[in-house]
Amino acid sequence: MKLAIILATTLIVSACAVLQKADNAFLSRQMQVLHLLQHINEPLQDPELISIRSQFEPKNDVKFYDSKCIKNLMHQIENGHLIPREEIFSLFDANQRKQMKILFDCLMAAKDWDTFMGLATYVRDKMNHRQFVYGFCTALLHRNDCRGLKLPPAYEITPHMFLTTDVIRRAYQAQMQGKPAIVPMKFTGSVLNPEQRVAYFGEDIGLNSHHAHWHMDFPFWMDNQKDRAGELFFYMHHQLLARFDAERLSNYMPPVEPLQWDKPIIEGFAPAAAYPGGQEFPMRPDNVYFQDLPQRTVAEMIEFEARVRDAIDAGVIYDKSGIPIYLNGTQGINVLGALLESSTASIDPQFYGSLHNDAHLLLSRVADPKGKYGNPPGVMEHFETATRDPAFFRLHKHIDNLFKEHKDLLPPYTYDEISFPGVKIEAFKVIGESKASEPNTLITYFDESHINLGNAVNGKPVDIRAVVSRLNHEPFKMVSTIVSDKDTAAFVRVFLAPRYDWYGQEIPLNEARWSMIEIDRFTAKLNAGMNIITRKSHETVVTSSEPMSYPALIKQTAAALAGEATVFVEKTHRHCGFPHRLLLPQGRPQGMKFKLYVVLTDLSKDLHRQFDDFINVPPALSYCGVLDGPFPDTRPMGFPFDRRIPYPENFFQDNAKVIDVTIKNIKI
Ligand code: CUO
């Protein structure tokens, strides 16, 4: 039999990016972005940007000035309508969002880079600083001419939004003394709070940053939504839940329970963090009930949800003019995602409400619903802080259950839909990259990461960093032995799920399917005969690698501008991306049993018709989709585990395999 050894480099869809050498024009734009976002609550300091600002006059540029947005923006500025610089910007406040969107639209309409940066410098010190940062960064992520530019890590632009008050206070002290410092950050809560055991996940700064960037790549308020944005809203949050529940199980905790609008919110949360202006994020005691807000009552939430449930059960949603949109195709989840979020693509927000967005607001304001005590917004009102609160996962479990209700009404996949005739997986194994690795055993551990706090304090630069503990894992590779009766190509999908539940009972496949953690999704050419495919963990398209720190980005860009270093531009670079460190759940010191599933399907059927037989997909595809155009994989997200599996014994055909793996968490 012919044997083909196929390494990751021959994959059709691979994680390898197209790189090109950065020229001086690109590097100077990169530096402008980095300087613009430094010390954002202080006036602009960089001489080059001050010079750009002094030469920019929106009224002089007739083409630019004629656009509706710039007239609108100038009207807001000149008539003092913008919110004060020190006010706390909330995306969930309709007026504040509208102002931000005017800026966003203007930045998107800027006809070239000079206009874009000119306008950014012109507005920076006139607007609320977080409102500006959000509008500017979101525009940068969506403009074609900004592809490849890197934003600094979100937690180093506005550290207050990611770190606890004690860390910030110690950073101030170090700054005043002019002494470099490394400040350890603890997770919030105490041993008396069981949720503390999994705080390392919800409070992971990389996770928070990913979540913030996801919502900037797919803003619910943007006029044109990307391909399958509603489905990605479902799937990305669904995967976060599967990961969170696996962390809970690793720590001997049951799966997170969904919230109910008329029941107490069992876990309280004390964020121990403060806004840059000093206002403390409000705490929520245990067992409080949802409260009516001026803009949304609990009764309305219950009513909207009843309408959504009726629509799910009927399999049809009616748009504003009464036209039915059926949910029973593979498009249904996308329609439902937009409706539940709700985004601008919602079929009818007036009738079906905005369950998810309003729930964030209800949770954020629960301790002071009428504004009687002047509390600032809670952590649930900002995407960069929301996952810290255990209620985030409870809310999303509730929303996820609505998606499940819909998926469970769809017919199970038929043999034809999940089989791949002529292709058989003979063997599948995982191998740890460290020499001491045992077969099919994966290793996790906690390590330390440094966060630059330069933007948390003002004054002469002093090297002040926070050190945080974070989950990580040893690299591994997955090796599949596949026999094919022809030359063909496959989509390879790999999922992980706990083997035993909280009670120690083996989890049946029809339940495990909803807890599947996607580990990788790639394509492979198969030759007739035997093929051995090796895929390394760092190549996965589920996660992204660590971002470069703010000072390192500045240093690297400066060195390249001086001709002392070479920087490569990756036009498909994404800021959205689940941290690669978190690819695997923690597991347990003595080892925790998981099942690892691999499923091959026919690439020629699965690949979007816009692609021929070759595409190059960057990292982060699974959670963050693509920058432009169609999502390359036409199967529903989570396929083939997104639908009921009534006959598990028949589910695994030759093209699928499951193996036992053990995840051990070790001390280093
Ligand atoms: Cu990401 Cu609720 O959608 O936080």
Automatic annotation (TrEMBL):
Residues 389-400 form the Tyrosinase copper-binding domain. Keywords: Monooxygenase, Oxidoreductase, Signal, Storage protein. Gene3D superfamilies: Di-copper center containing domain from catechol oxidase, Hemocyanin, C-terminal domain, Hemocyanin, N-terminal domain. Residues 1-15 form the signal peptide. One of its GO terms (cellular component) is extracellular space. PROSITE patterns: HEMOCYANIN_1, HEMOCYANIN_2, PROKAR_LIPOPROTEIN, TYROSINASE_2. GO terms for molecular function: monooxygenase activity; nutrient reservoir activity. It comes from the Eukaryota. The keyword Signal applies. Coiled coil: none annotated. Pfam families: Hemocyanin_C (PF03723), Hemocyanin_M (PF00372), Hemocyanin_N (PF03722). Belongs to the tyrosinase family. Hemocyanin subfamily. This is Hemocyanin B chain. The lineage of its organism: Eukaryota, Metazoa, Ecdysozoa, Arthropoda, Hexapoda. The gene is LOC107272596.
